[in-house]
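Figure S7 source data.
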Amino acid sequence: MHEWALAESILTAAVEESDKGKLKRITEIKIGLGELQQIEQDIFEFALDEIIKFQADKLKDVKIKLETIKSTLKCKNCNHTWSFSDMKKKISEDEGEAIHFIPEVAFVHTRCPKCGSPDFEITTGRGVSITQIKGEK
Ligand SMILES: [Zn+2]
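Tokens for the predicted zinc ion complex:
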């Protein structure tokens, strides 16, 4: 039942974050699944659906998007490798309606810390986390 516990904590975190961002309603939650996490994705998605049914209005009609996340990155330009923890320090505030509150998975902001190239590949990963929440204020 690991997937159920995970789904519940993800949704709870999403609602808490939407409160911080003063969102009236959450329209979309993106969830990053690390490759080393080894959850059953089908069960996880089912659990999310079921829990959402019993949640408050805030999660009504929310769209859940799952994406696979790996945690070690490698620059294609200079072959430098670095980890999320290195990356996390460099990530700044996000723009617009999107809330990147778990910045270690915000790949869009990533550049190679050594040569500055945006051309990198991801090599290993773990963990499950929310990568983005969209909502209405
Ligand atoms: Zn590089």
